[in-house]
Amino acid sequence: MLPTLIQSVAEMQAQSSTWRAQGQRIGLVPTMGYLHEGHLSLMRLLRPRCDTLVASIFVNPIQFGPHEDLARYPRDLQRDMELCAQVPCEVVFHPSAEEIYPENFRTHVEVSELTENLCGPFRPGHFRGVTTVVGILFNIVQPHLAAFGQKDAQQALVLERMVRDLRMPIEIVIGPTRREPDGLAMSSRNVYLQPEERKQATALYHALLLAEKMINSGERRAEKVVAAMTELITHEVTTPVIEYISVVDRQRLHPLESLRGQFVIALAVRIGKTRLIDNMFFEV
User: What is the pTM of this model?
Assistant: First the structure.
């Protein structure tokens, strides 16, 4: 059976208030739709921990830059509803942009420091758009738990910080990156890749595996790891545009020179017209 589709903010808020009054535990997986196994794995992660599971599907216009892919971002609501039914998920919340951002909307939520590195300089305003819309969704759906994927590690850690700093009574759950059989991190944007680009896109994962091997062998110099990853990607991808390959601490996302403690190795690479990101968490 398909989930219940709710498109009105008022209806979603009323339903959530009723669930809470009944003592139900609400889980939320915010998405932009065109779902894949990565999204579904987050739903399955929350399913045993909540009484009611909500998936939001909203292509958020304020997290896209002026030259990004808002207009062509893939959309297929019927397909998404059918996938949610497999989990199962009780409700799909699919509001319009006008519902989320009514006329004269003027308020934004912004997390500093954690948004200054990695994707931040390349996507100005992106994280402000993410934290704003997620904050709105939290107020509408009133979840006890919300799940985000490690594939978007910076986003997940920024939202974790937002919840902590604003004292939101919500547990953030970060689910592991789901990958295709050849290692490519699942992403709705993978459909943009041409066949040859799709083959070359596995270079991001290969570079992360190389980093893991070097670290496990005792390498602790970040510059050496980054140089080896860069060389691998340059060799495996035809004219890649490497935006960054960075080693940052997990708490503040500051660049590291020496690989100690908890840290993240993250990279963003453009292959053709498609921007791909990936990462791994480490603790040494």
Answer: 0.96
